[in-house]
C-alpha cells in the first residue's frame, strides 16, 4: 500500500485539517496520497488555502453563494454545494477512502452513501453511529463494508481487539479525561462560562465536542458508538475516568488480560492509523515519554457530576430514534450555551426534558428505523428545544 485516493468531508475542521497534515507527512515519508475531494461548511478562506495546497478535483461547500465565489477563484475546479454536494463526494468514483470529519447529524447521510458505494470509511463523525448505528450496521453487513474508527477511544479499542477473538471479550473500557470540570465543586457548575468549558485539559478539538466532553455527553456518545462499531452489548462497556488521557481505551479479555493503547494526546496518531491501516509509518508525530510520566490514575465516572451522561446513555439503550432526538437537542443546547443564552447545567436538564418528551410521543416504537425517520425526529427535537423553559 503506497498511497490512497482520499476524500475528506469537513476538511476545514479540527479533524479535517489534521488529516491534511497527516497526508503531507505521509507523502514526505514516501507514500503517494492524493486528495481527490474536499468538503467544507462556510470557511471558504481556509478551504481556498487547502485547494491551493492539495489540488483536489472536486470540492463542496454548504452554501451555493460560497460555491459561486469559489468557481470565480478556481477555474478548473468542480465546485458543488449543499447536502447534494456532500453526497456526491461521499460516492465519488475512483476513491479508496472517505474521511468523514463532519460535525453533527449532517454526517449520517454521507456515511450511509460512502458505505453503499463500497468505499472504505474512516469515521470521525461519531453522530453517524450515535443516531444511525442501526442503519449503519445493517448496511455494513449487507455490503461487507469497512469502517476504520478515528475517534481516539475507538481507534484504541480497534487496535486492542487485534489481541483476541470477539467471543473472548470480557468488556471494553472507555477512558474519559473528565474534562475541565473534573474537580470543580458541583454547586459551582451552574455558573461556569463557555470560555472555561472550552478549555479542555488534554485535547484541542472543535467547539461542540469540547463542550460535550465537559458534560460527558461525548462519553455516552462513545459508549453508543462502541456498542455499534464493535457489536458489544452495553453491559460490557465501562467508562472510566483517566485524567491524563494517555491510555486511549482498553479491552479486557476473559482470561483477565487487559490490552490497552497508549500514545500522546494527538489526534493525528489515530487519523494516520486509519489512513495507512494495516501499515504503520514513521512520520515524526509527538511521542509519549513513559519515563517522564509520574502518574497514571483511574476513577469511576461520577453521574452526579455528569447527569447528561446518564440521559444520553438511556437514549442509547432505548434505541430507535431516541438518540436522534437527544443528539439534535444537544447540538442546539451546546450552541445556546456557547452564545451565553443558557447556563452549563441547563444542557443536561434540557437533554433529559427532550428524552421525556420523546417518550411521550405516540410513535416512539421504531419498528423499521429509516434515515427519513431519524431526520424527522431530529427536526422535531430541534423545535422542541426552542419551547423548553430552561
Ligand atoms: N476534534 C477532535 O479532536 C475529535 C476527536 C474525536 C472525534 N471527533 C469527532 O469528529 C467530528 C468532527 O469534529 P471536529 O472537532 O473536527 O469539528 P469541527 O472542528 O467543528 O469541524 C467540523 C467540520 O464540518 C464542517 N461542516 C459543518 N457544517 C457543515 C455543512 N452543513 N456542510 C458541510 N460541512 C460542514 C465544518 O466546516 P466549516 O468550518 O468550513 O464551516 C468543518 O469542516 C465530530 O463528530 C467529533 O465528535 C473529533
Describe this structure in words.
The chain has 390 residues and is an alpha/beta fold. The protein has two domains: 5-155 and 265-290, Rossmann fold (3-Layer(aba) Sandwich); 179-215 and 302-386, Rna Polymerase Sigma Factor, Chain: A (Orthogonal Bundle). 45% of the residues lie in helices and 15% in strands. The chain has helices spanning 14-28, 44-54, 64-73, 82-90, 108-116, 127-143, 152-160, 194-197, 207-215, 217-230, 268-276, 307-318, 322-338, 345-360, 371-386; strands at 5-9, 34-39, 58-61, 78-81, 97-100, 120-123, 147-149, 169-176, 237-241, 247-253, 258-262, 299-300. The chain has a seven-stranded parallel β-sheet, sandwiched between helices. Strand 5, helix 5 (108-116) and strand 6 (120-123) form a beta-alpha-beta unit. Helix 1 packs across helix 11 (268-276), helix 6 packs parallel to helix 10 (217-230) and helix 13 (322-338) packs antiparallel against helix 14 (345-360). 45% of the residues are buried. The structure holds NADP nicotinamide-adenine-dinucleotide phosphate. NADP nicotinamide-adenine-dinucleotide phosphate binds next to helix 1.
Amino acid at each position: 500500500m503506497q498511497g490512497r485516493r482520499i476524500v475528506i468531508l469537513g476538511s476545514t475542521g479540527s479533524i479535517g485539517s489534521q488529516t491534511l497534515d497527516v497526508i503531507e507527512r505521509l507523502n514526505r515519508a514516501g507514500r503517494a496520497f492524493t486528495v481527490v475531494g474536499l468538503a467544507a461548511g462556510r470557511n471558504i478562506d481556509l478551504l481556498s488555502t487547502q485547494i491551493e495546497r492539495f489540488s483536489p478535483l472536486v470540492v463542496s461547500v454548504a452554501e451555493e453563494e460560497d460555491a459561486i465565489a469559489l468557481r470565480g477563484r478556481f477555474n478548473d475546479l468542480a465546485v458543488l454545494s449543499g447536502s447534494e454536494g456532500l453526497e456526491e463526494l461521499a460516492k465519488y468514483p475512483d476513491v479508496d477512502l472517505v474521511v468523514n470529519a463532519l460535525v453533527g447529524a449532517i454526517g449520517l447521510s454521507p456515511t450511509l452513501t460512502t458505505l453503499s458505494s463500497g468505499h472504505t470509511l474512516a469515521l470521525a463523525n461519531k453522530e453517524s453511529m450515535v443516531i444511525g448505528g442501526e442503519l449503519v450496521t445493517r448496511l455494513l453487513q449487507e455490503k461487507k463494508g469497512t469502517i476504520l474508527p478515528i475517534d481516539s477511544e475507538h481507534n484504541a479499542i480497534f487496535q486492542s481487539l487485534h489481541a483476541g477473538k470477539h467471543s473472548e471479550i470480557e468488556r471494553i473500557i472507555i477512558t474519559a479525561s473528565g474534562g475541565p470540570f473534573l474537580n470543580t465543586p458541583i454547586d459551582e457548575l451552574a455558573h461556569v462560562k463557555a470560555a472555561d468549558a472550552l478549555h479542555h485539559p488534554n485535547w484541542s478539538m472543535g467547539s461542540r465536542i469540547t463542550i460535550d466532553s465537559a458534560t460527558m455527553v461525548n462519553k455516552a456518545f462513545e459508549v453508543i458508538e462502541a456498542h455499534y462499531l464493535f457489536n458489544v452489548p452495553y453491559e460490557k462497556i465501562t467508562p472510566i475516568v483517566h485524567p491524563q488521557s494517555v491510555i486511549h481505551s482498553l479491552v479486557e479479555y476473559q482470561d483477565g488480560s487487559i490490552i490497552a493503547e497508549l500514545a500522546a494526546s494527538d489526534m493525528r496518531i489515530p487519523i494516520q492509523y486509519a489512513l495507512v491501516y494495516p501499515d504503520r509509518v514513521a512520520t515524526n508525530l509527538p511521542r509519549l515519554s513513559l519515563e517522564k510520566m509520574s502518574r497514571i490514575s483511574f476513577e469511576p465516572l461520577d453521574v452526579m457530576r455528569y447527569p447528561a451522561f446518564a440521559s444520553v446513555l438511556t437514549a442509547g439503550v432505548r434505541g430507535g430514534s431516541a438518540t436522534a432526538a437527544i443528539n439534535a437537542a444537544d447540538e442546539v443546547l451546546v450552541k445556546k450555551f456557547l452564545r451565553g443564552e443558557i447556563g452549563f447545567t441547563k444542557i443536561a436538564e434540557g437533554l433529559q426534558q427532550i428524552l421525556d418528551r420523546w417518550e411521550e410521543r405516540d410513535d416512539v416504537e421504531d419498528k423499521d428505523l429509516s434515515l427519513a425517520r431519524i431526520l424527522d425526529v431530529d427536526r422535531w427535537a430541534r423545535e422542541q428545544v426552542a419551547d423548553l423553559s430552561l
